[in-house]
Amino acid sequence: MSEAEVQISCIQFEPRIGETEQNVATSVSLIGDAAAGGSKLIVLPELCNSGYVLNSREEAYELSETVETGNSIAAWRAAAADMDIHIVAGFIERQDDRLYNSAVVLGPKGLIGTYRKNHLWNAEALYFERGDLGFPVFHTPFGRIGVLICYDGWFPEAWRLLALQGADLVCVPTNWVPMAEQPANSPAMANILCMAAAHSNSMFVAACDRIGTERGQPFIGQSLIVNPNGWPVAGPASVSEPGTVTAVCNLSAARRQRTWNSFNQVMRDRRTDLYPEMLGTPTRPGWY
Amino acid sequence: MSEAEVQISCIQFEPRIGETEQNVATSVSLIGDAAAGGSKLIVLPELCNSGYVLNSREEAYELSETVETGNSIAAWRAAAADMDIHIVAGFIERQDDRLYNSAVVLGPKGLIGTYRKNHLWNAEALYFERGDLGFPVFHTPFGRIGVLICYDGWFPEAWRLLALQGADLVCVPTNWVPMAEQPANSPAMANILCMAAAHSNSMFVAACDRIGTERGQPFIGQSLIVNPNGWPVAGPASVSEPGTVTAVCNLSAARRQRTWNSFNQVMRDRRTDLYPEMLGTPTRPGWY
């Protein structure tokens, strides 16, 4: 082990809508396999205990859990403690009858934190509130980790805000859907966005997608782990088959590689004297 | 012609260091070929009249021009007028004995504007001042265009600031150099950054690189034009050979495609309530 090495696995599988107990059991079994193989940080897909394509607010509510009392969270928490690992897993969070598309970060000693998806995609707006916890960075024995969920990854601001807080690794529970016009033999655009973000922020990215077609909506797999140069070190996994992608990542590399030469360090090269006037201000009304 | 179509060409060639007159003559000849083929907007590489690998401040100064009096600018201006086209071209700009890594934007009626590279790469810091003109967007008969130069493209803030001002197209005069660890058969990271930026901002990108090895520094070609979905519509060109990549682009598509479904419009989905606290503030001193 050098500096800050950790073996990471993204467990790509197919949750079944509404079959929460079975989905969690499947995930815990696969987590056990990965942990037995030496992985210390496991990333699961977005909404991986409940399924994604909800039919109603009532269904979303029925499938939601609180972090404190949820059965899925309890099962994953027990797995993290029993196997001495960290787990990042997507689920429907309920608090005060509000629902969020969230991910929980668990360690051997219990709850580390929660992230609530800040950028909701399409019909999610019918069931969930937008995230209200900002872009937190969580401290672990092996380094600093941030979490983004699916469409969050379309916003360079989100990656950058995590990098500016020193994140070495961003875990991405996701349910990627097909993009228009993808040419044959091209990496998926979702993969390209992860690669660009990893490179331009000098961070590891571990993105765990689901597979299968749910209520007519196909998902695209292709889970992957990207190094701070922006290149995949594991995956992309299959478009349609379950599979676990695993890589040993030296998170220290993320910090070292931010310095590129005598003059350039990516975070310090930012022209913050030029950015403030627009990046933080709302899009002008009526503007396209 | 529908809506706002324009045929764009990126002219990838090999400037020779210090041979300004010959470099401009070569570029004007190639511009003529592209214009004869119907192109109305021509993008040339970064520092394409002077060459890139400078040996001294004195050499940089000798090769610099003012926008008002420079011979290269005059030649390109004449070409734009004669051929009824627009040209975006990189050159060493001098003003009040300050030097900038700049690009001029010319139209049939003359000078439209100048962009000065805001993020300097490596030894450029020895010769050039950082840009002090912000991220301007220029208006043309076919739409709004922005300009970024090479390392600027590593900063998602730069693309976003252009998109937030309504840019339909970003022209990128560049001198890309090899990146560490690129896997065989992968798109170049520079291409990936263009694709990610085009997709997540819904803009066209026309990036014109140079080729050849200058004073020991290799360049990587692979000029390309990317549509607002993020996919190449022309190129990438050769790694080592000259070549012009050309595409007919409907710039209106950039604005239409920002709306993805009933709920999502990429510019309006930005969580500006969460961004301001950090994006515009300087990196903390001592922070890696």
UniProtKB/TrEMBL annotation, chains A, B:
- Annotated membrane-spanning segments are none
Q: What Pfam family is a match, any one? A: CN_hydrolase
Q: Which PROSITE patterns match?
A: CN_HYDROLASE
Any one GO BP annotation for this protein: putrescine biosynthetic process from arginine
Please state every residue range assigned to the domain named CN hydrolase.
6-251
* This protein's UniProt keywords: Hydrolase
Which superkingdom heads the taxonomic lineage of this protein's source?
Bacteria
Which InterPro entries does the UniProt entry name for this protein?
Answer: Aliph_Amidase/BUP (IPR050345), C-N_Hydrolase (IPR003010), C-N_Hydrolase_sf (IPR036526)
Give this protein's Gene Ontology molecular function annotations: N-carbamoylputrescine amidase activity
Name of this chain's protein: Hydratase
Species whose genome carries this gene: Skermanella aerolata
